Amino acid sequence: MPESFAPPARTLMGPGPSPVSPDVLAALARPTIGHLDPAFVDLMDETKGLLQETFLTQNRLTMPVSGPGTAGMEACVDNLVEPGTTVVVCRNGVFGDRLRQMVERAGGVAVVVDAEWGRAVPPETLADALVEHPEAEVVAFVHAETSTGALSDAETLARIARDHGCLVVADTVTSLGGVPVRVDDWGLDAVYSGTQKCLAAPPGLSPVTFSDRALERMDARETPVQSWFLDVSLVARYWNADGAKRAYHHTAPVNMIYALHEALRRLQGEGLEAAWARHRRMHRALAAGLDALGLAFVVPEAERLPQLNAVWIPDGVDDAATRRRLLDEHGLEIGGGLGDLAGRAWRIGLMGEGARPGPVLACLGALEAVLDRSGGVEAAEPLLDAVAA
């Protein structure tokens, strides 16, 4: 009989998952109860309220989808897109293209607005596309493009979309909890995220929220949603979004919802604005250290996502071999590039519990050792000392 699995100690500084606190891990280990148990139903309601606070929304349909962030993406797309629906998709990385693929799989017509990888989506390109395609009904974009570390101006993109009468689908998988996400103030209609990034919970759930405008569109559908499991009108009954009697949909991942509840409780205890500020401070310290090591950022500073730092791999440095040494010799995980950046860039995460002084210094120290360079820790320490003070 195989021995029980004992995971190695790792410092998770990749694009996800992020480190999970002992309190959240302990929540996972609590006794499993039934997914219709009255005590669990109360926990569902609390979790919904915490998600509304985190998304900064009053949307009655706010809940975690059972599945990772990609499941949330598919839920938002599949429920709003019918065969023939024209959707303007902003693409500046891998996950923008995944949105395009999902639109087309749902039978929609994707009008792609391309932006340079490593750059934010230029709002004027979206505005031009909507003028050229007045038939468009939905605009979809990635707020924080995990494949490049670029942060787009979600508020402006959403305003342009709404000015043209479009619903807004926003990917906040890597932004929620790390930078401002203001669903109601910005007029976002279908928003999804993931638990394993700045929310600092294990992977496996995708928080989503839908505006009343989105619900009206779903109610007016002429065709059924292509996925029964992700049909929000069915799942919503289980999460009691309309105040009616709660109805069984599927066996919810009970212990994962324990963990999400604990992670959200901790986030609200810290305060959203404090969490956003912490991610910014840790980014500034890490950026100073990376600069001292001669590692240049892919994304211009004004468009940079604090919690996902993409840097160019130095000439003559083997990507895979270096990341393997970091893992084997220092227990440090960073990410390789995706798509156009594969083999050309590293992605260093600063998410959730990873956005703390200890992981920042561990990352820079490991890079110093493996790259045989110095100065990274020394450059970062004064900024971290200022935080401690």
Structure at a glance:
The chain has 389 residues and is of the alpha/beta class. It has helices spanning 22-28, 38-55, 69-80, 94-105, 123-132, 154-163, 183-186, 212-219, 232-238, 254-270, 272-292, 319-330, 357-371, 376-388, and strands at 11-12, 61-66, 86-91, 109-114, 138-142, 144-145, 150-151, 167-171, 190-192, 205-210, 308-312, 332-333, 335-336, 345-349.
Write the layout of secondary structure elements.
Layout: E1 11-12, H1 22-28, H2 38-55, E2 61-66, H3 69-80, E3 86-91, H4 94-105, E4 109-114, H5 123-132, E5 138-142, E6 144-145, E7 150-151, H6 154-163, E8 167-171, H7 183-186, E9 190-192, E10 205-210, H8 212-219, H9 232-238, H10 254-270, H11 272-292, E11 308-312, H12 319-330, E12 332-333, E13 335-336, E14 345-349, H13 357-371, H14 376-388
Parallel strand pairs: 1-12, 3-4, 3-5, 5-8, 8-9
Antiparallel strand pairs: 2-10, 6-7, 9-10, 11-14, 13-14
